[in-house]
Specification:
The structure holds 2 protein chains of 2 kinds. Helices cover 60% and strands 0% of the residues of chain A. The longest helix of chain A is centred in the N-terminal third of the chain and has 25 residues. The longest helix of chain B has 18 residues. Chain B starts with 22 loop residues before the first strand and ends with a helix. Chain B is an alpha/beta fold. Chain B is 29% helix and 20% strand. Classes of the chains: A mainly alpha, B alpha/beta. Chains A and B meet through helix 1 of A and helix 6, strand 15, strand 16, helix 9 and helix 10 of B.
Chain lengths: 333, 445
C-alpha cells in the first residue's frame, strides 16, 4: 500500500517565495540601472557589479566559514542590497568605496543580526551612511564621469541641486538667484537629473519601478505615499510662507533621493512596520525628519538618516499600531 | 458590483475543474460503515444490535446529549458489527457496520420527484423534525442544525444568511446542487426562516458561479421574494460565517461572539437542501453530494453518495488510485482534512475527496521571516500571524490572548501566502487551543 502524505491544512501553498519577491525588487530597479548606464556608462556598471559581487560573497563567506549555517545567497536578498547601495553612490565613486560599503552593509548591518529578516536597520542604508561619514569628500563629489555613449556635458557640476541650494542660501542668495544661476528644470530632474547618485538620474525610471512593484503586489503604496506626501506638505508650508528661502515641494520631491529612498529603501520588508497604520506613521516620520535635516541640519539631503532613525522605531510602531481587527469598532447589528 | 468582506482574504486559483460534471448516483456499496461521530458534540448512541435488519432512513443511533445528532442507516441490510474503526485521521470511532442487501427505504420517505412547496409545519414542529432527521451543518463544521435554529434566550435572529459561496478551491458540490436543485434549496431556506421567525434571507454566491446566481435569482424574483441572492467577489475565505455576514450585511461579529450576536444565523445551501428533504419529504440525512476531483485524475465527478462510503471505493469508482497522487483530502484544499486511512468512510458533512500530487501539496523548507506582512494582509480576522507564531513558539500564552489568537478561524490564508514557508497556522492552532482552554476555565462574570 502506498504511503499517503498526511499534514494539517492548508494543503496548497501560494507561489511567492522570499526569492521571487526579492527578484521582483531587483527587476523593478532595472529601468533605473539602464538609465544610469546610459548616462554614466562603465562607471555605473562597475559599481553595480562590484556591489552585487561583494555583497553575495561576503554573505557566502560568513555563512559558510564563520557561522557555518545554511547558505541563503541565492535568495537575491544580498544581491539586492549590493545593487541598491551601488545605485545610492555618486557616479564617480571608486570601486573600493563600493567594496567597503557592501562589506559593511552585509557583514555588519545584516549578518551580525542573524541574516535575512533579522536586521534592525536597512543594510544598504547602513552601508551608505557609513561611507558618507567616513569618506565625506568622495561621497559628496557628484561630478559626472565620461560615458561610453555620450560626453559628460554636465561634467562641471560637482554638487547636487540640494547642496547647491544649501550653499547658495548660506551665501545669502535668494531662491530665484540660485535657480537662474544653475538653470534647474523639472524636465531635467524628471528624466536626467543634474548631480545625484547613480540610481536617481531619472525620476521617471524610479516611478516605473514603483508601478511594477505595486502591480506585482510586492509592496503597498502606503510608505512611499506617506513620505512623499509629508515632504510635499512640509516643504509646501514653508515655501508658501517664504519662497525666497525655501525650495518648492516639487523640487524637494525630485531631488536628494526622496524617490529612490521612499520606493526602494523605506519599503524594505524587514525594517518597515507590519500594519497599514504603522506604515503611514513610519512614512510620515521619515518625511518630517528628512525635511528637518534639509532645512536646518548640516547635510543637504537627509532621507538616509531619516529612514535609519525610523528603522529603530519600527518595533515600537509595531507594538502600538495594530492592524484593524475584525469585529472592532464596527456596528454589531 | 459584487460584495465581499472587508478585512484580509486571499485569491487562490479556484481550480473548479469538476463544475461541468452533473450529479450522478454513486453505485451502492457492499458494506456501509456508519460513524457514530458525524457531528460536532457527543457521539450518538447506537439503537441497533448485530444481526438487526435495517432500512435506508431508519434511525440507528440516538443523539446523546444537548449537542449531538441522530444517525440513520444509509442503506438497507443487516447490521454485521458495531465496533471501533479508524476514522479518516486514524482515530478509533464507534461505527455501525451494515452489510448491504438491496435498497429498501423507510416507507415514510417520499421518493417522488415532485417538489413540495407548501410548508405545513409550525416553527417548533420544524425544529423537532430537523432534529429527528439528524440534520447537521454541511458547510464543514457539522454543527447540529436544530440547535443553531434555536437561538439562546435573549437573542433574536433578524436575518438568515445562506452560504453558497463555496470559496474553497476545487469544490463544486454546492454549485451543482444550486444548479440542479435550486428550488428545493429556496424552500429549505424558507423552512428555516419560519423556524427562526425571520422575514428576510440572503444567499451569498461567489461570482465565479454565474449560472447558479442567474438560476437562483430567477426563482427568487418569481416566488421567493423574501430571499435575496447576493453576488460575491471570488475571495477566500468568503464562506467563513463571520466573513459572509460582513460581506452581505456589513455587520461584524465581535471577538469571541457568535453570528447570533449580530442578529444573524448562517446556514449552508447544502444544509437547506437537507432541511427541505427532511421536512417536506420525510427523508433523514443519510446521503449527500461529494465532489471527487484532482488535477492528477482523468475524470472529475460529482456523486450523490450514501453516508458510510469508504474513500477506497470512491477511488475505485473513478478508476483507481492515480499514480502521482500523494495526498488525499476530505473537503477543500484550504481547510479539509488529510486522509490517513483510505478504508475510513464518509460522513454527513463530507463534501469532497480531493487528490493532490506531491508537487501541488508539498511544503517547502521553512526560511527566516522577512516581515513582509503578507500574512497580516491576508488574515481575514485582522490578526498578526507572524507575531502569533513567534509568541506560540515562545509559549507566551498571556501575550497570545492580548493579540487575540482566540479569534483565529484557522482558514490557512497566512500559511498559504507566507513566502518563507513558515508553518504559521500549525503553531497558531496549537496555542489557540491552550488559550481557549484557559479562557473557558475562568469563572464567568
Amino acid at each position: 500500500m502506498k504511503k499517503l502524505i498526511v499534514s494539517p491544512a492548508p494543503h496548497l501553498h501560494g507561489k511567492e517565495t522570499t526569492k521571487s519577491l526579492m527578484r521582483d525588487v531587483v527587476i523593478a530597479l532595472v529601468p533605473s540601472l539602464l538609465v544610469s548606464v546610459y548616462y554614466f556608462g562603465f562607471s555605473a556598471i562597475k559599481l553595480a557589479l562590484v556591489g552585487i559581487a561583494t555583497a553575495v560573497l561576503v554573505e557566502y563567506v560568513i555563512q559558510r566559514y564563520i557561522v557555518k549555517t545554511k547558505i541563503t545567497v541565492n535568495d537575491y536578498s544580498a544581491a539586492l542590497t549590493g545593487l541598491l547601495l551601488s545605485l545610492n553612490l555618486p557616479p564617480n565613486s571608486p570601486w573600493w568605496i563600493m567594496f567597503i560599503g557592501s562589506v559593511v552593509a552585509i557583514g555588519i548591518a545584516k549578518m551580525t543580526f542573524g541574516g535575512v529578516g533579522q536586521n534592525l536597520f536597512n543594510p544598504a542604508l547602513v552601508g551608505r551612511v557609513f561611507l558618507l561619514v567616513s569618506f565625506p569628500v568622495i561621497m559628496t563629489d557628484y561630478s559626472i564621469p565620461t560615458s561610453w555613449f555620450r560626453e559628460g556635458i554636465d561634467a562641471g557640476s560637482g554638487a547636487t541641486a540640494l547642496s547647491i541650494v544649501k550653499e547658495g542660501l548660506a551665501k545669502g542668495m535668494t531662491m530665484d538667484q540660485i535657480f537662474s544661476q544653475n538653470e534647474f528644470s523639472y524636465a531635467q530632474m524628471l528624466f536626467s537629473k543634474i548631480g545625484g547618485s547613480v540610481g536617481e538620474v531619472s525620476a521617471f525610471a524610479l516611478i516605473l519601478g514603483f508601478i511594477y512593484l505595486l502591480i506585482r503586489k510586492v509592496i503597498k503604496p502606503h510608505i512611499p505615499l506617506a513620505i512623499v506626501g509629508t515632504v510635499v506638505v512640509f516643504s509646501g508650508i514653508f515655501w508658501l510662507i517664504d519662497p525666497t528661502h525655501y525650495t518648492d515641494p516639487m523640487f524637494n520631491v525630485l531631488t536628494g533621493g526622496i524617490l529612490i529612498g521612499s520606493i526602494f529603501m523605506a519599503t524594505d520588508y524587514v525594517t518597515s512596520p507590519m500594519s497599514n497604520k504603522g506604515m503611514i506613521v513610519y512614512g510620515v516620520g521619515i518625511g518630517v525628519i528628512t525635511m528637518l535635516i534639509r532645512n536646518w541640519g548640516a547635510y543637504p539631503e537627509g532621507i538616509s538618516f531619516a529612514i535609519l532613525i525610523l528603522n529603530a522605531c519600527v518595533p515600537l510602531i509595531n507594538m502600538y499600531f495594530k492592524p484593524v481587527r475584525f469585529g472592532k469598532g464596527v456596528k454589531h447589528g | 458590483m459584487s460584495k465581499t468582506f472587508s478585512v484580509g482574504g486571499i485569491h487562490p486559483k479556484d481550480n473548479k475543474i469538476s463544475v461541468g460534471a452533473a450529479i450522478e448516483n454513486f453505485p451502492l456499496m457492499e458494506t456501509a460503515y456508519i460513524s457514530m461521530s458525524q457531528h460536532l458534540g457527543a457521539p450518538a448512541e447506537p439503537l441497533v444490535a448485530k444481526g438487526d435488519k435495517v432500512k435506508a432512513g431508519q434511525l440507528i443511533a440516538k443523539a446523546n446529549g444537548f449537542i449531538s445528532a441522530n444517525i440513520h442507516s444509509s442503506v438497507s441490510g443487516t447490521v454485521s458489527a458495531i465496533e471501533l474503526l479508524p476514522d479518516l485521521a486514524g482515530n478509533l470511532v464507534q461505527h455501525v457496520v451494515v452489510k448491504v442487501e438491496g435498497d429498501e427505504w423507510d416507507e415514510k420517505i417520499d421518493r417522488s420527484p415532485e417538489i413540495v412547496r407548501e410548508i405545513k409545519l409550525s416553527p417548533s414542529e420544524i425544529i423537532t423534525k430537523i432534529a429527528d432527521c439528524g440534520i447537521v451543518g454541511l458547510g464543514g463544521a457539522a454543527f447540529p442544525t436544530h440547535i443553531k435554529l434555536s437561538p439562546p434566550p435573549g437573542k433574536k435572529a433578524e436575518y438568515l444568511v445562506m452560504n453558497g459561496a463555496e470559496c474553497e478551491p476545487y469544490l463544486t458540490s454546492d454549485y451543482r446542487i444550486m444548479l440542479e436543485n435550486p428550488e428545493e434549496i429556496l424552500i429549505g431556506t424558507r423552512i428555516m426562516m419560519i423556524a427562526l421567525g425571520v422575514k428576510k434571507a440572503y444567499v451569498g454566491i461567489e461570482d465565479n458561479k454565474p449560472k447558479a446566481i442567474r438560476k437562483m435569482k430567477e426563482l427568487c424574483s418569481k416566488q421567493y421574494r423574501d430571499i435575496k441572492i447576493v453576488s460575491l467577489q471570488k475571495k477566500y475565505p468568503q464562506g467563513g460565517e463571520k466573513q459572509l455576514i460582513d460581506a452581505i450585511l456589513g455587520r461584524q461579529v465581535p471577538s469571541m461572539g457568535l453570528p447570533i450576536d449580530t442578529g444573524v444565523v448562517v446556514q449552508n445551501v447544502g444544509t437547506a437542501l437537507a432541511v427541505y428533504e427532511a421536512v417536506q419529504k420525510n427523508k433523514p440525512l443519510f446521503e449527500g453530494v461529494v465532489t471527487v476531483t484532482g488535477k492528477c485524475m482523468t475524470e472529475q465527478r460529482n456523486f450523490r453518495m450514501r453516508v458510510g462510503t469508504t474513500f477506497e471505493s470512491m477511488l475505485f469508482a473513478v478508476g483507481g488510485f492515480p499514480k502521482d497522487a500523494e495526498k488525499l483530502v476530505s473537503g477543500g484544499p484550504m481547510m479539509g482534512k488529510a486522509v490517513a486511512r483510505i478504508e475510513a468512510a464518509s460522513v454527513k458533512s463530507t463534501s469532497a475527496l480531493l487528490l493532490l500530487t506531491e508537487e501541488e501539496t508539498k511544503r517547502k523548507p521553512e526560511a527566516n521571516c522577512i516581515r513582509c506582512a503578507k500574512c497580516v494582509d491576508a488574515c481575514p480576522m485582522g490578526l498578526e500571524p507572524f507575531l502569533l507564531n513567534r509568541l506560540s513558539r515562545a509559549g507566551r500564552i498571556d501575550d497570545l490572548e492580548v493579540n487575540m489568537v482566540q479569534d483565529c478561524i484557522e482558514c490557512g490564508s497566512c500559511l498559504y501566502v507566507c513566502p518563507a514557508n513558515i508553518p504559521l497556522l500549525d503553531t497558531i492552532r496549537l496555542s489557540k487551543a491552550s488559550v481557549l482552554k484557559i479562557m473557558r476555565s475562568r469563572p464567568k462574570k
